[in-house]
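Appendix B. Extra example for self-study. Work through it before the problem class; the solution is given directly after the inputs so you can check yourself.
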Amino acid sequence: MILVTRPGILPEEMDEIRERAEALDIRTHVSDLGDRRVIGCVGDEDQIRRLGRTRFAGVEEMRRVDTRWKLASRRFEEERTQVRLGFHDVGGPGLAVIAGPCSLEGREMIHETARAVHAAGAIALRAGVFKPRTSPYGFQGLGQEGLEMLAELRAETGLPIVTEVTDPRQVDAVAECVDVLQIGTRNMYNYDLLKEVGRVQKPVLLKRGFAATIAEFILAAEYVLAQGNPQVILCERGIRTFETMTRNTLDVSAVPVLKRETHLPVIIDPSHAAGDRALVPALALAGVAAGADGLLVEVHPEPDRAFTDGAQSLNFVAFAEMMVSIRAVAEAVGREMLIGGSSLEDS
Ligand code: PEP
Ligand code: MN
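Solution. Structure tokens for the complete assembly:
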């Protein structure tokens, strides 16, 4: 439910609303709408109805929010959420590119890749150390040792780092070492993990489940928001369809739908959608043209030797070339590319 106050509501009138809501175990979220205030209320449905029957002196209008999601909804928060990443905001006017290998394979390769993607204009590095693999015999990532390499790289360069968490028990350690916690496609429905990343105050990059509807995807984000972490970036990474010529089908329509329904930043992962490096630039450009706030791209020094996802990884030259076309499309749709923002500039 949303309460809209009269202009210039008095502080004691705001306190009365807050106290009544608290007594009913209802969380309130206040934002400004011109000289009025909008108070979003989240809690048990019966208690919300009870609050709705209360007459408050300062309230002009009470609106039931009839959506399945509340905190993620644009009806709840009209202003778009911007997630701070180093020196930049994802979800603001600029376009953010995050790039790096699927898996961290060693110290040298991650430093080399960080330098290359940063030089080409990426604002953050991605690299997996806990890899959720389809086969239990596949490379599972360097785990704790890899996490330490990421922490070292981050301390040395200041480059923001994104890495995946696959288990609630990893969350605190990963949150200490990197800047963004990624929830992979397989874990979008892992509600315990979503709650756990909702408890920490670190941005979360939430990938859409490969068989999830957009509604289920938003509700997964709602889990994180409901725990008190407002910094969620949504990532469309392709869904499973009858089509077999691509690894997944990039659902470009998810971009405008998510932007209409939510106030959260939306990015595209063209690499996992395509599964084939030759297709990555076209999907990336389509995502930007459709209004995505950024891209998550797999880049490897020698894609054909990559431990994981080599077929869809770009080498440094291909990534730099793609960045030139991305800049052109971004500018055509009225956005500037975000660039730089780490001590790598001087090295
Ligand atoms: C990844 O980013 O390397 C990854 C495993 O992605 P997804 O969860 O989208 O498959
Ligand atoms: Mn991958």
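Self-check: The mean pLDDT is 95. If your reasoning did not lead you there, revisit section 3.
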